[in-house]
Structure formats: structure tokens, C-alpha cells
Amino acid sequence: MTALRRSCTIGTAALLALGLAACTSTGPAEPESTSPVVQLGAPGEPNRTLSPDEASGLEEPEHTEADVEFMQMMILHHEQALTMTGWVEERTTDRDVRLLAERMRISQEDEMDLMAAWLQERGTPLRDEHAGHGAHDMPGMLTQEQLDRLETASGEEFERLFLEYMIQHHQGALEMVADLWAAGGGVEASIGQFARHVEGDQGIEITRMQGMLAERSS
Q1: Are 55 and 37 in contact (CB under 8 A)?
Q2: Residue 14 DSSP label
Q3: What does residue 27 show for φ and ψ, rounded to 5 degrees?
Q4: What is the H or E stretch that residue 39 is in?
Q5: Cβ atoms within 10 A of the Cβ of 98, count?
Q6: Residue 49: how many CA atoms within 13 Å on its side-chain side?
Q7: Which ranges are annotated Polar residues under compositional bias (predicted)?
Q8: Cα–Cα distance, 180 to 99 (Å, whole number)
Q9: Is residue 204 within 8 Å of residue 210, measured between CB atoms?
Q10: What number of CA atoms fall less than 13 Å from residue 167's CA on the CB side?
Q11: Which of 61, 106, 112, 196 could form a disulfide with 187 if both were Cys (CB 3.0 to 4.6 A apart)?
Q12: d(Cα 20, Cα 94) in Å, to the nearest integer?
């Protein structure tokens, strides 16, 4: 080995030794990068990125009485919608109305299971013992007269009434969600997500039904 090659070999070994020493240093390690924590804003308000100190002090918000009341009342609200969709098969052969009603039936049955599970997990009853008397006072609920009129209708009259009444019913659900936000509810993650789902899903269905009504009147 020439003197030049021997010198380069020694130099390289020294650099590797220094590099390893630096890697195994007991000095302070660089802090690990963490993803930012974003706090969802209330409806109409922007989201906010929390500082590390704020994020570390966060606690999972607990449900409120407004949340419980919302879930209990929404179960009753859904029950009436299922009564309405249950009449569709025998009273109209319209494909679009029947498909719409079937979609509503499936989604609202699933939501009722979700709401019942949410209430049971929190040790609260599925129904407020005083709620039954004022159930028809909830936003969007059909009166007994409206229910009777829908039940006895058929064909095109049933289709028109079903769409009109279900739009009314859905708009009532959106009002109930708005009342939940106004009462300071919906902060707990699971109910907040559910309320937003109801808001979005029923808003889309209202637009669809309004279009179906417009097609029938044109």
C-alpha cells in the first residue's frame, strides 16, 4: 500500500469514527415532528390550529342535556318518516318515488340504531317520558290531519303529498340541528359528526325532492 493510499484510508476511518460518535451522542435529540391539531369551529366559524400547549391540555368534551334531548326527539322524528315511507309501496308505482322512499327507509333505520346505541352507552333512556305528549310539536312533524290525508291518497296525489310532506319533515330536522347548535350542543365528537351528517344528507334530499316536484308541475 502506498503512503498516499494509507493516508487516505486512515483519514476515512477517522471521519467514520467521528460520524458514529456524533450519531451515538447522548446529547439532546431533536424533537419529533407532530401533526398539527385542528379544532373544528362552530357552524359558520373557521377552524383553528391549536398550539402544542393548547393541544396537550385538550379533554374530550362531554355530552350535554341538549345532546340527549336532540337524540331522543330525533328518534321520534325518524319514526314518523318511516311511517310515511311505509305507505309508498302500496300507493304508487312511480319508480323515482319508490327508490327515494327506500333509500330514506334504510338510512333512517340505520340512524335510529346509531341514536339508540349512543343513548344506551351514556345510560340515558331512549325516550323522554314527557316527550310523547309534545312529539307533534317538533319542527316539521306532520299533523294527524296531514298523516290521514297522505294515508288515504294514491297515485299522483300521493306522490305529490309525499314529496311536499317529506320536504316539510326534512326541513324540520334541519331546524332541530340548528336548535342543537344554538343550545351549545353537538360539541362531543360523535354527536357533532352525526348532526352534521343529518344536516348534509337531508339537505341533499330536500333539493332532490324539490326537483321532483318541479318536474311534476311542469
Answers
A1: yes
A2: H
A3: -65, 175
A4: strand 37-39
A5: 16
A6: 3
A7: 24-37
A8: 30
A9: no
A10: 14
A11: 61
A12: 77
Confidence tier at 117 by pLDDT (50, 70, 90): very high
* Rounded Cα distance, 55 and 173, in Å: 33
Of 102, 206, 113, nearest to 163 by C-alpha is 206
How many other C-beta atoms lie within 10 A of the C-beta of residue 65? 11
- Over residues 45-76, the pLDDT tens digits come to 677 776 766 655 556 778 899 999 999 999 99
Instruction: Confirm if 96 and 208 have CB atoms less than 8 A apart.
Output: no
How sure is the predictor about 21, in pLDDT bands with cuts at 50, 70 and 90? very low
If 0-12 CB within 10 Å is exposed, 13-18 middle and 19+ buried, where does residue 177 land? buried
Cell of 75: 328518534
What are the residue ranges of helices labelled H in 87-184? 88-91, 95-121, 144-152, 155-182
Amino acid at the residue 3: A
**Contact in structure between 61 and 189 (CB atoms under 8 Å):** yes
What are the residue boundaries of the structural domains of the chain, listed by start?
65-124+142-217
Q: Which CATH number fits domain 65-124+142-217: 3.30.70.660, 1.10.1760.20, 1.20.1260.10, 1.10.10.10?
A: 1.20.1260.10
